């Protein structure tokens, strides 16, 4: 089965995209709210604003480069998340070193070299400048992160790791989460006509599709007509879109497809993409997926969530013991 062609969804998305205005603001201007001292923790240790800003700046610059200005809420959220992450990393590194971890700087340098080779020298140098780092500093950060991850692998509380019985209980408690939406199988021929097209162009395309419909009535293969005339990539499959979840297609297209009997051909249907001639197929009603089909994915998701919670609990304990004071507004 095929999915609703990606290219059509991209065209539909692009047709409604709007670009924001930046009024000449720079990343530096927008990050002035970050204080000189972002956090106090431990025995007189601090996280400084000039350590946080270079890590937030690339996200800001990326949006500005697209003509979009981050909202104050976005800026506060990014700054808070990065600052909290930096404090967490420092506390975890101190704990890892206290428990006998060591820094493999040579491994860090190898990773840096691999990144440089993958990105290319110029792109890698630019990435370092954006982060305000040297190659040696990056190598040290990578070595520190490896030490933290190795320590956390042993420090995390895994006593609550979900079992298959837990997954079955979750499945039984929330069957609505495992209900497959109704699906419709459809074929189509698309003549791409933008919404801004003149009435004459739109009418001509509709007439061409009506002619195709007349040919099908005379016995011409719908698939052959799709291959010859359709602007959709599905033309190579005779216009076959496969089973599509109800609620994911353009409304006019979906309504027409659901109203057709298998093999029945619609009148031309207009959507923002153009004019469609639709051949109906089977409609599958909504149904509860069997536990055996969703078990592995559900259990994997529950284990990821359990590990994330264990990490959050570990970091919360570290922050409480270090009496962290963070001077940024929480999102």
Task: Provide a descriptive summary of the structure in words.
It is a single chain. The chain has helices at 6-14, 27-30, 49-65, 72-98, 105-119, 121-131, 135-155, 164-173, 199-217, 222-229, 251-259, 291-322; strands at 37-41, 45-48, 179-180, 183-192, 240-245, 269-271, 274-284, 287-288, 325-326. The chain is an alpha+beta fold. The protein folds into two domains: 26-158, no CATH class; 182-285, Chitinase A, domain 3 (Roll), CATH 3.10.50. It has a four-stranded antiparallel beta sheet with strand order 5-4-7-6, with helices on both faces. Strands 2-1-9 form a three-stranded antiparallel beta sheet. Strands 3-8 form a two-stranded antiparallel ribbon. The model is unreliable at 1-21 (pLDDT under 50).
Any key phrases for this structure?
331 residues, four-stranded antiparallel sheet, 2 domains, 14% strand, alpha+beta, disordered N terminus, 12 helices, three-stranded antiparallel sheet, Chitinase A, domain 3
